[in-house]
Amino acid sequence: MEKVYIFDTTLRDGEQAPGFSMTVEEKLQMAHQLAKLGVDVIEAGFAVASKGDFEAIKLISEEVDGPIICSLSRAVERDIEVSAQALKSAKRKRIHTFIATSEIHMKYKLRMSEEEVLERIKKAVSYARKFVEDVEFSCEDATRSRREFLYKAIETAIKNGATVINIPDTVGYAIPQEFEKLIEDILNNVPNIDKVILSVHCHDDLGLAVANSLSAIRKGVRQVECTVNGIGERAGNASLEEIVMALKVRKDFFGELYTDINTKEIYKTSRLLCRITGSFVPPNKAIVGDNAFAHESGIHQHGVLSHPLTYEIMRPEDVGFPVSKIVLGKHSGRHALRRRLEELGFEVSEERLNEIFEKFKELADKKKEIYEEDIEALLYQEFHSGEEPVKVLKFQVQTGEGMFPTATVEVLFEGQRKRATSTGNGPVDATVKAIEKALSLHPKLIDYSIKALTPNTDAQAEARVVLEYEGYRASGRGVDTDVIRASVKAYTDALNRALLRKEYVRKIKGEV
Ligand code: KIV
Ligand code: ZN
């Protein structure tokens, strides 16, 4: 049995992507869940990049036990010193340093010769080793680097103390067979490559990140860098859940390789990331999408009922995917709610339980049967009862046959109550326009969708909104038995995230 190490970079490469930034507390919460999931390494941030990143790495180092905590650094002394400082309290720590090795990056970005890059690698890796025993070196844009130079760069890093060598497909350019060959060539041509862990880090620009990572594993790579839900720069990184499940489901193909991931925590981790960032995964996303285990066609349904393996290569419960179940009703008490929450993996304090119970009772008055999805939605709302620059205090909508849909809203913004009325193409449009008018803010709406969470007409509706305000993109989610209220919640959730993000960035830059 040989282990494949899972290096999670959701909090660094993932968080770097537009719409996915997280506060320090949110990163800490995510890191605790990643530890529960069983990842081997958490890349908690890029310490020198911002005060927020530094604080998050520091806090995660202090509070999260189990995985190695890692900080990214360019191949410069200052970055390495700041990483070392942020990682000080971690029981197990790693500094990850990188420099580009492709001609195009060296010529136009770094303006450095090959010799200068080698010198930097030597200095950076040996300097990082003064602070920590575990040093990872990445050759940025490795897949477009000249082979002989790439070997030399890796050799230099190993000679100077690197313990892990990472081969990034930075621009998502590689094709699986070609990537396999690259790994084979590195293994055959770099002295002492067997003394380090070889790693890959694939981006998904051509939709091949997971395929490339798996090809590399077949050739002997024993660490993969990946993210929850595949978030990351541009088209994202290789998705953690897809790699892990491919190795598990296709043991017949991959042989005796294993990871330490507790796959039953996968769905919960994916949803936590969505809740924290206000993002969502497409319904057809492998492993964690809403439709990943839904069988729509009659033939498929018949097959699955006769024998699940006719159309299912893994069971939903293997990844902790909830199967729509009625879990509670109007007469259920506090104990039953606590038990269900625990079964769903949520541990809550007595005080929080009381708050959630109040909301549960309100919901149970509106709909007969409470499903797992409803409970999750309750927790989501509770999770987001924090800081809200914009609050919609009241709204009233008139719509009907032969009428112009009209909405009047009252909002609280910057300590002032403001009212406005607007017509629109429908009741949701009228309400959103009235909110914008009252706030005198005009974010650009990128996406809006709404769906019923559970069966029956008394179902809760889940609305999702993506918008952009002054360059800050954010997504929001709102759930309610009333579709307009769900839409208003999603809209204000997204707007508040964009406003908070803008404020957060200004604070970090010292503008406020
Ligand atoms: O994509 C990339 O090359 C990276 C490196 C910093 C590892 O993210
Ligand atoms: Zn990357």
- What percent of the residues sit in helical stretches (DSSP H or I)? 40-55%
Given the C-alpha coordinates, what overall shape results? globular
Supply the CATH class of the largest domain.
Answer: Alpha Beta
The unreliable regions are none
Main beta sheet strand tally, sense and closure = 8 strands, parallel, barrel
Number of strands: 18
Looking at the chains present, what oligomeric state does this protein adopt? single chain
What portion of the residues fall into strands of 2 or more residues? 15-25%
CATH topology of the largest domain: TIM Barrel
Query: Overall pLDDT, averaged?
Result: 91
The CATH architecture of the largest domain comes to Alpha-Beta Barrel
Gyration radius from CA atoms, angstroms: 25 Å
Spatial strand arrangement across the major sheet: 2-3-4-5-6-7-8-9
A few lines on this structure:
With 512 residues, the protein is an alpha/beta fold.
Draw up the topology in text.
Blueprint: E1 2-3, E2 5-8, H1 10-16, H2 24-37, E3 41-45, H3 51-63, E4 68-74, H4 77-86, E5 93-100, H5 103-110, H6 114-131, E6 135-140, H7 147-159, E7 164-169, H8 176-189, E8 197-202, H9 209-218, E9 223-226, H10 240-249, H11 251-254, E10 257-258, H12 266-277, H13 298-306, E11 326-329, H14 334-343, H15 350-366, E12 369-371, H16 372-383, E13 390-398, E14 406-413, E15 416-423, H17 427-439, E16 444-452, E17 461-469, E18 472-480, H18 483-508
Parallel strand pairs: 1-10, 2-3, 2-9, 3-4, 4-5, 5-6, 6-7, 7-8, 8-9
Antiparallel strand pairs: 11-12, 13-14, 14-15, 16-17, 17-18
